[in-house]
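Box S2. Input/output pair 1.
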Amino acid sequence: MYLNHSKILKELPDLSTATNLQELFLVKCSSLVELPSSIGKATNLQKLYLNMCTSLVELPSSIGNLHKLQKLTLNGCSKLEVLPANINLESLDELDLTDCLVLKRFPEISTNIKVLKLLRTTIKEVPSSIKSWPRLRDLELSYNQNLKGFMHALDIITTMYFNDIEMQEIPLWVKKISRLQTLILNGCKKLVSLPQLPDSLSYLKVVNCESLERLDCSFHNPKMSLGFINCLKLNKEAKELIIQITTKCTVLPGREVPVYFTHRTKNGSSLRVNLNRRPLSTASRFKACILLVNKYCKENEVKEVFGRKMMKASYCIIDLGLDVQCRPTHHFLPPSLTEHLYIFDFEADVTSNELFCDFQVDSNEMVIKECGIIQL
C-alpha cells in the first residue's frame, strides 16, 4: 500500500482485515500523528516505511505482533519520542532511526537486527547486551561523551557521526573502534587536527570544520573515499597529502588544479595528453583532477551540504592511436560551497602516447573550470 507524500492524512483506517498486507509506505505523511493499534493484525507485513512523518510521536505496542516485519524505517521522524518496549521482532533485519532528533532511549525491540541506524538521535547509552546480538553487522551512532563509558560498543560501531561545535580534538578512543567504516564530522568548528584513525575506515567526510588545519594521520586504503568540504583552512602539508595518496575519490577546497598534475588545462573540461612514456601494457593507471565551481554561491555564503542531491562526475578517455574509447565510469560527489577539487584514480586501456580526456558533471549548480591528469 502506497500513501506517500500525503499532507492531509492524519490517521489510518482500521487495519484488522489487512492480513495480506506485506508493504506499507507512508513516507512524508507529515500530518500523521499515530498508527492504529489494529496494525498489529497485519501479521504478514514485511516492510513499514514511515520516513519524514514529522508529526508522529510514538508507535503502538501492537507492532510487537508483526513477527514477519523485516524493515522498519523512521528516518526524519523528528518528534518521535519513544518506541515500544519489551517486544522482540524476530524477523527484523533493519531499523532506521536516523534524524529522530528527540529519541533518547535505545531501541530494544529486536535482538536479531542486522542494521541499526541511530545517527543524529539523542541516545546516550548502549546496553551491554548488544554484544550478544547474533546478527548485528552495522551500528550507526552519533558521538556523545557518554559513549566512552560503553566500551562494549566499540567493537560493533561501523558509522560514527560528530557535530560537536566545541570539540577541539577527536577522542583517542575512536581509534579503538575496530570495525569503523564511516566517519562523518559536520560543523565541528573548533576542530584543528585529525589524529590517526582506524585502519578499517573506508569513508571519511569532513564538512564545515572551519578551523581544521592539520592531518596528523595517514591513509592506506586505496579504496577509501575522502571528503573535505568547506574546510578552507587546511594547510599546505595536509593538502599535499590528500592530493597525492591513492584513494577511490577525494574532495577538498582548491582554486586551481595543482602542479602535481603534469597535464593541465586552465580553461574547460577536456584536454589532450601527450604521455611522457609509452604505456608498457594496455591497462595504464592515472590520477585525474577537476576544479568544480558553484555558479550561484558567493564566496562566503554558507550553504548546508547534507541532505542535498548528490551529483555525478564522469569521464571518458579516447585513445587517439586507435581511436578507441576506453572504459567510462562515474563517481558521485556532494554539491559544495565554492571552489573545490575532485580527484580520483582510474585505469584506462591505452596503446598510444596521445589521449583525449573529457570530464562532465550532471549538475545545474556546478561547472568544471579546470582539469588535469598525471600518469602513475
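Box S3. Input/output pair 2.
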Amino acid sequence: MEAIVEELELRTSIDALKERRIATLSDPDLFFCPFLYVAGKYAFEPFTPREREILRRYITFGGFLFVEDTMGAKGFGFDQTFRKEIKEILPNRELKRLPTDHPVFQTFYLIGNMGGRQKVNAYLEGVTIDNWTPVIYSQNDLSGAWARDKFGNWVNECVPGGEGQRSSAFKMGINIIVYSLTSDYKKDLVHHPFIKRRQNL
C-alpha cells in the first residue's frame, strides 16, 4: 500500500499517513478512520454478530470500505465468504456491478479500462446507499499491481496487459481514495460537458 500512498501524494493535493495502520473492529478509534482496506485470498472466519453490527454502523455512518479478493477466484475462498458476510451486514442492500458512469470512474481520472495484477472482472462492484457507495469490491488485485520490494522493484507482473494494466491500477486506486473523500462531487452539472467531451474522444 505504500506505493499507492506515494502516488496519491505525487498526483493529488491529498496528504496521507505514510505508515500502515492496522485496525480491528474492536478498536475504539475505528470510527475516526475514513477509509478501511480489507484484502484476502482465502475463506475467513465469519464475523460475530457484534462485529457485523459495528461494520454496519461504520458503513452507514459515513465510513468507506474498500475490499479486494487478491486471488480472484469467483465463488470460492475469500470471494464466497465476503459475499455472504456483506449480505449479513447490509441485508437490505445488494452488492452490484457499478455502472460505467459511476462517480468512482470520474473522480480524478476518467477510467476506461480496469487495471490490477490480474484481469478477473472488467468492472468494480459496490453497495450503494442512496447516492453514496460506501463499499467497493475488486477481484483484480489492485494492490498486487502497486506492490514494490524494498529496492523499489515491482513484486508482481500484471497479466495479461503488462505495464499499461499497472498504470490503470494506480489510476483506479487514486480514484477510489478520492471518491471515498469527496463522494459524488463530479455529478455537479458544471463538470458534465467536460466529462462527456472526454468520454467521446
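Caption for Box S3: Residues 2-199 form a domain with the Rossmann fold fold (CATH 3.40.50.12140). The helical segments are 2-11, 49-60, 77-89, 142-146, 162-182, 192-199.
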